């Protein structure tokens, strides 16, 4: 019952006919110069969905493409979970985020810059998130000025305290020509007021842009799991489907050797790991592969992609990593970062192993524990060990 299934990609949320959004479309079409559009709003207000539709509207008439700047690491629209990114798009977005992630690097989708920050934006590591935001935004402005193309920024949903201050700093630095402020409805008590907006900026208040018929929205953890599954090519139910699919099943992806002696920087975002337990902590986990970028004069490295640690050699301190990142880029990798919230569920990994070996999942791990029975922390509240389905009593 835990085997992953193939999901037909469709746009998961619908946009209502909205007068405010229509005005933004007209202002972009009538602009004499490249526009800088920014969407801000709290989580679930519809800003990400509307941003995608704005991008598609621009692409319907712009042959030179558009820059999509995604500053929401919890639910990125085109890139790997846990990243902030700049993507140069030349073709329209036709799939939800978990389907679009497969197309990065091809089909008119060029990754300009990606920085891994994990899933947390607040708290003790907020300064890293702020630095990553400035890095990505500066690169976006540089590329936009060089190519003279429109740019659309989708902000994170952190709209209070330090998050609001960062949002206002982004608005000041990006100097948008159009800003859309999204609210969940006319009665939204957390009405967002952005200070320091240029007088030349067209500010549009948008209410309830998503269709009521769109159904229940996925949680961030569910969306991350779908995106990671597609990123590593896991969403196929049978071996025959795997062999006939465009994306390779993780079992058939190239597995690369990375010796830890060649990686000067290894970090864990959410916990401290003693040196003698580093290999054990990395084994079976999703990791961010990072590259130092001295040309960017930045504190943080870029992240060309993620890897799945398929195994470790304790004697040689070697990792065996499955990843879609190309070998040339892998040669430049000089850092590894792990975040506990950007991981595949243990059930998914066991399903992969069972399918590859042609055996029942219960034969691999007869018991399910609370930290392997679902997506994310708290998905299972049971404190006792339970017998997995298919295992004899």
Q: Provide the spatial order of strands within the biggest beta sheet.
A: 4-3-2-5-1-6-7
Radius of gyration: 22 Å
Termini separation:
18 Å
Number of strands: 15
**Major beta sheet summary:** 7 strands, mixed
Mean pLDDT: 76
Instruction: Return the structural class.
Output: alpha/beta
Low-pLDDT sequence parts: 1-15, 211-215, 235-252, 368-388
Q: With helices defined by DSSP (H or I, 4 residues minimum), what is the helix count?
A: 11
**SSE run:** HEHEEHEHEHEEHHEEHEEEHEHHEE
Residues in β-strands, percent? 15-25%
Helix content: 25-40%
Shape: elongated
Keywords, separated by commas or semicolons:
393 residues, elongated, six-stranded mixed sheet, alpha/beta, disordered N terminus, seven-stranded mixed sheet
In words, what does this structure look like?
The chain has 393 residues and is α/β, with parallel strands linked by helices. It has helices spanning 19-30, 47-59, 97-100, 126-147, 162-174, 220-231, 239-244, 278-282, 327-330, 346-357, 361-364, and strands at residues 36-41, 66-70, 83-89, 109-116, 150-154, 178-183, 202-207, 255-259, 265-268, 286-291, 302-313, 318-322, 335-338, 367-368, 386-387. The strands form three sheets. Strands 4-3-2-5-1-6-7 form a seven-stranded mixed sheet, sandwiched between helices. Residues 1-15, 211-215, 235-252 and 368-388 have low confidence and may be disordered.
Can you summarize this structure?
By secondary structure, the protein is of the alpha/beta class. The protein has helices at residues 19-30, 47-59, 97-100, 126-147, 162-174, 220-231, 239-244, 278-282, 327-330, 346-357, 361-364, and strands at residues 36-41, 66-70, 83-89, 109-116, 150-154, 178-183, 202-207, 255-259, 265-268, 286-291, 302-313, 318-322, 335-338, 367-368, 386-387.
């Amino acid at each position: 019952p835990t085997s992953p299934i193939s999901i037909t990609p469709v746009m998961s949320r619908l946009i209502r006919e909205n007068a405010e959004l229509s005005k933004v479309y007209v202002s972009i079409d009538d602009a004499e110069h490249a526009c800088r559009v920014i969407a801000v709003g709290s989580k679930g207000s519809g800003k990400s969905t509307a941003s995608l539709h704005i991008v598609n509207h621009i692409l319907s008439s712009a042959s030179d493409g558009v820059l999509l700047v995604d500053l929401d690491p919890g639910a990125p629209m085109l890139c790997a979970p846990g990243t902030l990114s700049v993507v140069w798009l030349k073709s329209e977005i036709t799939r939800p985020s978990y389907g679009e992630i497969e197309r990065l690097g091809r089909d008119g989708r060029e990754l300009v810059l990606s920085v891994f920050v994990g899933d947390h934006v607040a708290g003790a590591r907020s300064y890293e998130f702020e630095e990553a935001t400035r890095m990505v935004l500066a690169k976006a402005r540089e590329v936009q000025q060089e190519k003279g193309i429109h740019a659309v920024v989708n902000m994170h949903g952190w709209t209070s305290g330090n998050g609001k201050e960062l949002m206002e700093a982004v608005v000041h630095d990006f100097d948008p020509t159009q800003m859309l402020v999204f609210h969940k409805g006319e009665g939204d008590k957390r009405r967002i007021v952005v200070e320091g907006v240029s007088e030349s900026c067209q500010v549009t208040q948008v209410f309830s842009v998503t269709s009521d018929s769109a159904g229940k929205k996925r949680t961030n953890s569910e969306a991350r799991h779908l995106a990671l599954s597609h990123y590593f090519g896991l969403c196929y139910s049978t071996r025959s489907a795997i062999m006939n699919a465009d994306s390779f099943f993780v079992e058939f992806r190239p597995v690369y050797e990375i010796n830890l002696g060649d990686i000067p920087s290894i970090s864990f975002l959410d916990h401290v790991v003693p040196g003698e337990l580093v290999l054990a902590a990395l084994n079976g986990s999703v990791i961010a592969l990072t590259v130092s970028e001295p040309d960017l004069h930045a504190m943080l490295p870029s992240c060309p992609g993620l890897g799945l640690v398929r195994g470790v050699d304790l004697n040689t301190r070697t990792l065996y990593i499955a990843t879609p990142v190309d070998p040339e880029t892998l040669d430049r990798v000089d850092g590894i970062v792990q975040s506990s919230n950007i991981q595949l569920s243990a059930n998914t990994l066991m399903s992969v192993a069972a399918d590859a070996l042609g055996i029942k999942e219960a034969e691999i791990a007869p018991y399910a524990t609370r930290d392997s029975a679902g997506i994310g922390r708290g998905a299972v509240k049971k404190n006792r060990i339970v017998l997995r389905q298919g295992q004899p009593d």
